[in-house]
Amino acid sequence: MKKALHITSSARGGLSFSRGLSMAIIQKLTDRKEVGVVVERDLVQSPPPLLDEVLIGEFYKQPDSVGEEARHLLAYADAIFSEIDQADVIVISTPMHNLGVSAHLKAWLDQLVRVGLTYKFNEDGTKSGCFKNKKVYLAIASGGKMAFWPEGYEFIESYIKAVFGAYTGITDVTTYRIEGTAMGIADVDYQEILRDL
Ligand SMILES: Cc1cc2nc3c(=O)[nH]c(=O)nc-3n(C[C@H](O)[C@H](O)[C@H](O)COP(=O)(O)O)c2cc1C
Protein backbone atom coordinates (compact mmCIF):
# COMPACT_ATOMS: atom_id res chain seq x y z
CA MET A 1 0.00 0.00 0.00
CA LYS A 2 1.38 3.42 -0.95
CA LYS A 3 2.28 6.02 1.63
CA ALA A 4 1.30 9.70 1.42
CA LEU A 5 2.84 12.71 3.12
CA HIS A 6 0.36 15.57 3.65
CA ILE A 7 1.96 18.97 4.19
CA THR A 8 -0.23 21.92 5.14
CA SER A 9 1.03 25.48 5.49
CA SER A 10 -1.84 27.89 6.06
CA ALA A 11 -2.09 29.82 9.33
CA ARG A 12 -5.90 29.86 9.04
CA GLY A 13 -6.48 26.44 10.56
CA GLY A 14 -9.95 25.06 9.87
CA LEU A 15 -10.85 28.10 7.73
CA SER A 16 -8.08 27.37 5.25
CA PHE A 17 -9.15 26.72 1.68
CA SER A 18 -5.77 25.31 0.63
CA ARG A 19 -5.99 22.83 3.49
CA GLY A 20 -9.56 21.95 2.49
CA LEU A 21 -8.38 21.27 -1.05
CA SER A 22 -5.39 19.14 -0.05
CA MET A 23 -7.56 17.20 2.41
CA ALA A 24 -9.98 16.49 -0.44
CA ILE A 25 -7.05 15.21 -2.55
CA ILE A 26 -5.96 12.90 0.28
CA GLN A 27 -9.55 11.72 0.74
CA LYS A 28 -9.91 10.89 -2.94
CA LEU A 29 -6.63 8.96 -3.04
CA THR A 30 -7.48 6.98 0.10
CA ASP A 31 -11.06 6.27 -1.07
CA ARG A 32 -9.59 4.80 -4.25
CA LYS A 33 -7.07 2.87 -2.14
CA GLU A 34 -4.21 4.48 -4.04
CA VAL A 35 -2.70 5.36 -0.67
CA GLY A 36 -3.09 3.46 2.58
CA VAL A 37 -1.04 5.41 5.09
CA VAL A 38 -1.05 9.20 5.48
CA VAL A 39 1.60 11.06 7.48
CA GLU A 40 0.52 14.59 8.43
CA ARG A 41 2.90 17.53 8.81
CA ASP A 42 1.29 20.85 9.69
CA LEU A 43 3.99 23.47 9.17
CA VAL A 44 2.11 26.08 11.24
CA GLN A 45 1.55 23.84 14.27
CA SER A 46 5.25 22.87 14.20
CA PRO A 47 7.06 25.60 12.29
CA PRO A 48 10.33 24.76 10.54
CA PRO A 49 13.35 26.46 12.13
CA LEU A 50 14.70 29.40 10.15
CA LEU A 51 18.23 29.11 8.82
CA ASP A 52 21.16 30.68 10.61
CA GLU A 53 24.88 30.81 9.94
CA VAL A 54 25.72 27.60 11.85
CA LEU A 55 22.97 25.55 10.21
CA ILE A 56 23.88 26.74 6.73
CA GLY A 57 27.44 25.62 7.43
CA GLU A 58 26.19 22.13 8.30
CA PHE A 59 23.93 21.98 5.24
CA TYR A 60 26.88 22.43 2.92
CA LYS A 61 28.78 19.49 4.35
CA GLN A 62 28.42 16.06 2.82
CA PRO A 63 26.16 14.04 5.18
CA ASP A 64 28.99 11.73 6.32
CA SER A 65 31.16 14.66 7.43
CA VAL A 66 28.58 16.16 9.85
CA GLY A 67 30.01 15.80 13.37
CA GLU A 68 28.09 14.30 16.32
CA GLU A 69 27.90 17.72 18.02
CA ALA A 70 26.00 19.17 15.04
CA ARG A 71 23.48 16.34 14.62
CA HIS A 72 20.86 17.95 16.89
CA LEU A 73 20.91 21.08 14.68
CA LEU A 74 19.86 18.91 11.80
CA ALA A 75 17.09 17.08 13.68
CA TYR A 76 14.25 18.89 11.88
CA ALA A 77 15.90 18.57 8.47
CA ASP A 78 16.60 14.87 9.08
CA ALA A 79 12.96 14.27 10.13
CA ILE A 80 11.46 15.90 7.05
CA PHE A 81 14.00 14.20 4.77
CA SER A 82 12.98 10.84 6.16
CA GLU A 83 9.26 11.66 5.73
CA ILE A 84 9.69 12.53 2.08
CA ASP A 85 12.07 9.64 1.48
CA GLN A 86 9.43 7.20 2.72
CA ALA A 87 6.49 8.77 0.88
CA ASP A 88 5.26 7.66 -2.54
CA VAL A 89 2.83 10.57 -2.85
CA ILE A 90 3.34 14.06 -1.41
CA VAL A 91 0.33 16.38 -1.12
CA ILE A 92 1.31 19.98 -0.37
CA SER A 93 -1.05 22.86 0.27
CA THR A 94 -0.20 26.53 0.40
CA PRO A 95 -2.00 29.85 0.52
CA MET A 96 -0.88 32.46 -1.98
CA HIS A 97 0.86 35.10 0.11
CA ASN A 98 2.06 38.11 -1.82
CA LEU A 99 2.14 36.04 -4.99
CA GLY A 100 4.37 33.36 -3.48
CA VAL A 101 4.20 30.31 -1.23
CA SER A 102 3.57 30.70 2.51
CA ALA A 103 6.59 31.59 4.64
CA HIS A 104 6.17 28.25 6.43
CA LEU A 105 6.40 26.30 3.19
CA LYS A 106 9.45 28.30 2.08
CA ALA A 107 11.15 27.54 5.41
CA TRP A 108 10.30 23.81 4.99
CA LEU A 109 11.86 23.79 1.50
CA ASP A 110 14.98 25.48 2.85
CA GLN A 111 15.31 22.67 5.41
CA LEU A 112 14.55 19.93 2.88
CA VAL A 113 17.05 20.70 0.12
CA ARG A 114 20.46 19.28 1.06
CA VAL A 115 23.54 18.46 -0.94
CA GLY A 116 24.40 14.78 -0.82
CA LEU A 117 20.88 13.87 0.32
CA THR A 118 18.25 15.41 -1.95
CA TYR A 119 20.68 16.24 -4.78
CA LYS A 120 24.22 15.44 -5.83
CA PHE A 121 26.78 17.14 -8.00
CA ASN A 122 27.90 15.19 -11.04
CA GLU A 123 31.51 15.18 -12.22
CA ASP A 124 30.75 17.76 -14.91
CA GLY A 125 29.32 20.21 -12.33
CA THR A 126 25.66 19.58 -13.15
CA LYS A 127 23.25 18.45 -10.43
CA SER A 128 21.02 15.40 -10.17
CA GLY A 129 18.08 15.00 -7.82
CA CYS A 130 18.14 11.87 -5.65
CA PHE A 131 14.44 10.91 -5.46
CA LYS A 132 12.69 8.82 -8.07
CA ASN A 133 9.11 7.71 -8.67
CA LYS A 134 7.42 10.18 -6.35
CA LYS A 135 4.26 12.09 -7.19
CA VAL A 136 3.46 15.59 -5.89
CA TYR A 137 -0.01 17.12 -5.74
CA LEU A 138 0.01 20.86 -5.08
CA ALA A 139 -3.09 22.63 -3.72
CA ILE A 140 -3.02 26.44 -3.94
CA ALA A 141 -5.61 28.89 -2.54
CA SER A 142 -5.64 32.52 -3.61
CA GLY A 143 -7.86 35.42 -2.64
CA GLY A 144 -7.97 36.67 -6.22
CA LYS A 145 -7.99 34.89 -9.56
CA MET A 146 -4.98 34.09 -11.70
CA ALA A 147 -6.75 35.56 -14.72
CA PHE A 148 -6.57 39.02 -13.08
CA TRP A 149 -2.77 39.05 -13.13
CA PRO A 150 -0.58 39.87 -16.13
CA GLU A 151 0.93 36.92 -17.97
CA GLY A 152 4.03 35.65 -16.19
CA TYR A 153 2.72 36.33 -12.67
CA GLU A 154 2.49 32.66 -11.72
CA PHE A 155 5.19 32.12 -9.07
CA ILE A 156 3.93 29.24 -6.90
CA GLU A 157 3.54 26.23 -9.18
CA SER A 158 6.54 27.29 -11.27
CA TYR A 159 8.69 27.72 -8.15
CA ILE A 160 7.68 24.38 -6.60
CA LYS A 161 8.31 22.58 -9.89
CA ALA A 162 11.70 24.26 -10.30
CA VAL A 163 12.88 23.52 -6.74
CA PHE A 164 11.66 19.93 -6.72
CA GLY A 165 13.00 19.27 -10.21
CA ALA A 166 16.44 20.78 -9.64
CA TYR A 167 17.08 19.80 -6.04
CA THR A 168 15.14 16.57 -5.41
CA GLY A 169 14.60 14.93 -8.79
CA ILE A 170 10.81 14.96 -8.35
CA THR A 171 9.28 16.15 -11.60
CA ASP A 172 5.75 14.74 -11.48
CA VAL A 173 3.75 17.67 -10.06
CA THR A 174 0.00 18.15 -10.58
CA THR A 175 -1.57 21.41 -9.39
CA TYR A 176 -5.11 22.18 -8.29
CA ARG A 177 -6.27 25.67 -7.39
CA ILE A 178 -9.07 27.30 -5.49
CA GLU A 179 -9.20 30.91 -6.64
CA GLY A 180 -11.14 33.99 -5.58
CA THR A 181 -11.46 33.02 -1.90
CA ALA A 182 -11.53 36.72 -0.92
CA MET A 183 -14.34 37.39 -3.33
CA GLY A 184 -17.01 35.52 -1.38
CA ILE A 185 -17.44 31.81 -1.92
CA ALA A 186 -20.75 30.43 -0.71
CA ASP A 187 -20.23 26.70 -1.18
CA VAL A 188 -16.85 25.30 -2.01
CA ASP A 189 -17.04 22.31 -4.30
CA TYR A 190 -13.65 20.65 -3.91
CA GLN A 191 -14.86 17.60 -5.88
CA GLU A 192 -15.56 19.83 -8.89
CA ILE A 193 -12.02 21.30 -8.67
CA LEU A 194 -10.66 17.73 -8.48
CA ARG A 195 -12.91 16.31 -11.21
CA ASP A 196 -9.96 15.09 -13.33
CA LEU A 197 -8.13 13.47 -10.38
C1 LIG B 1 -0.32 38.02 3.99
C2 LIG B 1 -1.30 37.68 2.90
C3 LIG B 1 -0.95 37.90 1.59
C4 LIG B 1 -1.83 37.57 0.57
N1 LIG B 1 -1.44 37.76 -0.74
C5 LIG B 1 -2.29 37.43 -1.73
C6 LIG B 1 -1.90 37.61 -3.10
O1 LIG B 1 -0.79 38.05 -3.40
N2 LIG B 1 -2.77 37.27 -4.06
C7 LIG B 1 -4.02 36.76 -3.77
O2 LIG B 1 -4.77 36.44 -4.70
N3 LIG B 1 -4.41 36.57 -2.49
C8 LIG B 1 -3.57 36.89 -1.47
N4 LIG B 1 -3.95 36.70 -0.17
C9 LIG B 1 -5.25 36.05 0.12
C10 LIG B 1 -5.05 34.53 0.32
O3 LIG B 1 -4.38 33.95 -0.76
C11 LIG B 1 -6.39 33.84 0.53
O4 LIG B 1 -6.96 34.29 1.76
C12 LIG B 1 -6.28 32.32 0.54
O5 LIG B 1 -7.56 31.76 0.73
C13 LIG B 1 -5.32 31.87 1.61
O6 LIG B 1 -5.26 30.46 1.67
P1 LIG B 1 -5.87 29.69 2.93
O7 LIG B 1 -7.35 29.87 2.85
O8 LIG B 1 -5.45 28.28 2.72
O9 LIG B 1 -5.26 30.30 4.16
C14 LIG B 1 -3.10 37.02 0.87
C15 LIG B 1 -3.47 36.82 2.22
C16 LIG B 1 -2.57 37.14 3.21
C17 LIG B 1 -2.97 36.91 4.65
TrEMBL record:
The keyword Lyase does not apply. FMN binds at residues 10, 16-18. The lineage of its organism: Bacteria, Pseudomonadati, Bacteroidota, Cytophagia, Cytophagales. PANTHER family: FMN-DEPENDENT NADH-AZOREDUCTASE 1, FMN-DEPENDENT NADH:QUINONE OXIDOREDUCTASE. Belongs to the azoreductase type 1 family. Keywords: Flavoprotein, FMN, NAD, Oxidoreductase. Its EC number is 1.6.5.-, 1.7.1.17. Pfam families: Flavodoxin_2. This is FMN dependent NADH:quinone oxidoreductase. Its cofactor is FMN. It comes from Dyadobacter soli. Residues 2-187 form the Flavodoxin-like fold domain. Also exhibits azoreductase activity. Catalyzes the reductive cleavage of the azo bond in aromatic azo compounds to the corresponding amines. Quinone reductase that provides resistance to thiol-specific stress caused by electrophilic quinones.
